[in-house]
Amino acid sequence: MNRRRLAALVAILLSLAETSAGESALQQQNAILLQELRDVHQLTAAQMARITQIFASSAYIGQGNPAVTRHPMTPEECVARTGGARTYANPSFERICGAKFMAPLYDPASQRPQDAKACIDQFEFPDIPCAYPVVWVTARQAAELCAAEGKRLCDAHEWEGACAGALGEPDYRFDLARGQPTEEAVERMQAAHNRAYAPTKSWSYGPAYVRGICAADSVKSATCNGGNFAGCGSNTYPAGSFPQCRSPLGVYDLNGNAAEHMNLPLAPDQMSSAGSTKLGVTEMKGSWFIFDRYYAHPDWCRWRAPFWHGSTVLSPASHLNYHLGFRCCKTLD
Predict the structure, then answer these.
(1) In sequence order, what are the residues at sequence separation of 6 or more whose Cβ sits closer than 8 angstroms to the Cβ of residue 62?
(2) Residue 297 lies in a domain
(3) Cβ-contact 245, 251 below 8 angstroms
(4) Of 94, 81, 172, which Cα lies nearest the Cα of 127?
(5) CA distance linking residue 27 with residue 31, whole number of Å
(6) Residue 16 scores a pLDDT above 50
């Protein structure tokens, strides 16, 4: 065997070894995460079996590829900075929502928190203060993970209300979409929505974009070419590590950290908040961990993104990447 072929073979073997080590590290990381998820949210054996099954079905889902991810803050540093779960525990919210680390969704102008008909996770999944967000998750997997916990994927207007500080009535222009999951139909609907809300734009923390207030000062991996798992680190902060990045309803990291999958219904029978399991199309909400360095697109609370990487929520091929996570909602009885 000549030297060139030998060098090529060595390179292949090293690459395979790195891939195997990366998978092993991801599996170890996920095992720790799932144990924490079980303990914090007091999940049943059946719930954990389903969640474990969803994680095991993917070679990517987790808190980022350990081989290339470089988090700018550790969970321990987050706890020292914020107090972690002790600080964020909210007995009144827990009584209303029947779950830890969820916030009631309501309109303070006419309602009290106990009037809420739904709640939203205060933090990105796994919804644990000072844990890194789960990314590399498809919209379908996000919906399945929410369901496994007895929750559901949020509708777009619920996420927006949590961010803006007031849950409004569903405001979808179904007449413009006509139930058609096409780019043209969705973007007609989105454009009309954005024009209507632009005069009152706000962010989770206030009326104008502010640098340094949210988890948005991390960096993109130098090896990140497009969005590949091998080169793109999910360089997120621990959830809740920026306490001022909080909406008036008590929801954190809606701006910064991970972008988030939501359900955009194109017809009334696709609304998660109305009990539908059919669901609509994908929408990516919020901003992500480099926005203070590179402001990639608008991220005010009620802004709806174009049909980027669009699909139906339940498509097996729905989009996933290194800075895209999710949070769940829950309908109250």
Answers:
(1) 26, 29, 30, 33, 55, 134, 135, 136
(2) yes
(3) no
(4) 94
(5) 6
(6) no
Alpha carbons 23 and 25: distance in angstroms, whole number: 5
Q: pLDDT by residue (tens digit) across 95-134? A: 999 999 999 999 999 999 999 999 999 999 999 999 999 9
Contact 254, 233 (CB under 8 A): no
Structure tokens at 3: 């030297």
For 148, the domain range is 71-331
Query: What b-and-e string marks burial along 296-331, b requiring 16 or more CB atoms within 10 Å of the CB?
Result: eeebbbbbbbebebbbbbbeeebbbbbbbbbbbbbe
Element (H, E) at 12: helix 3-41
> What gap in Å lies between CA 215 and CA 265, rounded to an integer?
29
Q: Are 287 and 147 in contact (CB under 8 A)?
A: no
Whether the pTM exceeds 0.90: the reply is yes
Q: Element (H or E) spanning 264, and its range?
A: strand 259-264
Q: Is residue 251 part of a domain?
A: yes
In contact, 258 and 289? CB cutoff 8 Å: yes
Angle among Cα 222, 224, 229 to the nearest 5 degrees reads: 135
Annotate 139-179 with DSSP letters as a single string: HHHHHHHHHHTT-EEPBHHHHHHHHHT--------HHHHTT
Residue 314 falls inside a structural domain: yes
| Residue indicated by tokens 């959830």 | 239
Q: Which of 37, 32, 26 is nearest to 328 (CA)?
A: 37
| Inter-CA distances, 194 with 38, 191, 201, 271, 280, Å | 39, 5, 9, 20, 19
Q: How many domains does the chain have?
A: 1
Return the CATH number at 278.
3.90.1580
Task: Please check whether residue 32 lies inside any domain of the structure.
Answer: no
